[in-house]
């Protein structure tokens, strides 16, 4: 995605058809798979071990994919906000069902009702700053997806990509002169290659963000927010 173009993307497609079409369901499934890890890490913060968190995450995504979206407000625009709000409702519903079962009345299935991640009545007891933590993991997952896409684009040039990758993720421990020696390139050519990789990575990150919002005008704001939370530690 470049310039001002904004074609219907995954989340846009889901919202436009209320998740009812086959393409929309496939898009929702892809989005859920892409952002599975932030949900797992959020669930760990509530005191669960890894296995328990992943089991709960599987149950949550099964409900999302089976029941659909409920009534998300397209004006909210962000899949990130929808997913966290739905997750909090899922946990509240499960906790209520467990309490009901303990009272001997059995557990009643309750469909997800959409709220935003900042809606009242959704705090997680014992968890401080949970939304910020979720957003941070979301940002890291998005960056990882963009890096993976960039690496895929450089299949066949893996030595170049692996040598220059540290200048993309902040892990460079050697000089660009050393990278030039390893690759048999001039130092200036290495600088140009790194510049191009960074530019392409920015494009891929923007495309990933665009796939999770419903309005092209929201992309810049979402990018700023995710950059801020990713840099907050």
TrEMBL record:
Keyword Transcription in record: yes
SUPFAM superfamilies found in the cross-reference section: Sigma3 and sigma4 domains of RNA polymerase sigma factors (SSF88659)
Keywords: Sigma factor, Transcription, Transcription regulation
The keyword Transferase is annotated on this UniProt entry: no
UniProt cross-references to Pfam families, sorted A to Z: Sigma70_r4_2
Residue ranges occupied by any RNA polymerase sigma factor 70 region 4 type domain in the UniProt entry: 174-201
Protein name, per record: Sigma factor-like helix-turn-helix DNA-binding protein
Source organism (scientific name): Luteolibacter soli
């Amino acid at each position: 995605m470049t310039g001002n173009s904004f074609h219907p993307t995954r989340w846009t497609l889901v919202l436009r058809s209320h998740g009812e079409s086959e393409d929309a369901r496939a898009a929702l499934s892809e989005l859920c798979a892409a952002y599975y890890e932030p949900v797992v890490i959020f669930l760990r913060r509530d005191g669960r071990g890894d296995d328990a968190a992943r089991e709960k995450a599987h149950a949550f995504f099964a409900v999302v994919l089976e029941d659909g979206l409920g009534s998300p407000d397209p004006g909210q625009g962000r899949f990130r906000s929808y997913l966290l709000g739905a997750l909090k409702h899922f946990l509240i519903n499960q906790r209520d069902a467990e309490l009901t079962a303990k009272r001997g009345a059995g557990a009643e299935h309750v469909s997800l009702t959409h709220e935003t991640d900042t809606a009242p009545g959704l705090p997680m007891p014992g968890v401080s700053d949970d939304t910020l933590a979720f957003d941070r993991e979301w940002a890291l997952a998005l960056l990882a997806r963009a890096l993976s896409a960039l690496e895929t684009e450089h299949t066949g040039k893996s030595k170049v990509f692996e040598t220059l990758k540290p200048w993309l993720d902040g892990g460079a421990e050697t000089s660009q002169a050393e990278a030039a020696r390893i690759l048999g390139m001039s130092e200036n050519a290495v600088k140009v290659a790194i510049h191009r990789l960074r530019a392409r990575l920015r494009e891929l990150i923007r495309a990933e963000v665009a796939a999770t919002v419903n309005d092209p005008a929201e992309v810049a704001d979402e990018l700023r927010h995710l950059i801020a939370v990713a840099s907050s530690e």
